[in-house]
Amino acid sequence: MILPDKDSSAMELFLDEFSKSIHSGKHAVLVVDQAGWHKSLDLKIPMNISFVFLPPYSPELNPIEQLWQQFKQGWFSNRCFEDYEEIVDIAVEAWNTFTSLPGAIKKLCSRNWATLEG
């Protein structure tokens, strides 16, 4: 889902769509940073989703920060775009390329120092 804004309304659209993908009787936990649109009192969070907030100023705990860094370096840096649609097209290409690489998401989200034994 690519949205033109990052605000409570956009977050709510995402949560509504994500909520529909959760199997009946299941519950999802999203790890989110403390962006204003994640913490807005106006945000309506579906009953089958809960948030766990990362500590403030902890980008090393947020894998999306590493993903954005890869996207900027690989697809977005040192370029000019014709229009918004071209930016969206490049973002889709970047996402599809990244997610097609075996183990890319696991590698990006894994930390040797953050493993649970048991």
Walk me through the structure:
- With 118 residues, this protein is mainly α.
- It folds into two domains: 1-56, no CATH class; 62-111, no CATH class.
- The protein is built from five helices and two strands; from the N terminus they run αβαβααα.
- The chain has helices at residues 8-20, 36-39, 63-76, 84-100, 104-109; strands at residues 28-32, 49-53.
- The protein has a two-stranded parallel ribbon with strand order 1-2.
Number of helices: 5
Q: Name the helicity range.
A: 40-55%
Report the count of strand segments. 2
Unreliable spans are none
First and last CA, distance:
36 Å
- Give the SSE string: HEHEHHH
User: Could you say which overall geometry the principal axes of the C-alpha atoms support?
Assistant: globular
**Mean of the pLDDT scores?**
88
Strand content: 5-15%
C-alpha-based Rg, rounded: 16 Å
Number of domains: 2
Q: Report the sheet with the most strands, covering strand number, pairing sense and barrel closure.
A: 2 strands, parallel
Name the strands of the widest sheet in spatial order: 1-2
What class do helices, strands and sheet pairing give? Answer: mainly alpha
Briefly, what is this?
This protein is 46% helix and 8% strand. The chain has 118 residues and is mainly α.
Give the SSE map.
Blueprint: H1 8-20, E1 28-32, H2 36-39, E2 49-53, H3 63-76, H4 84-100, H5 104-109
Parallel strand pairs: 1-2
Helix pairs in contact: 3-4
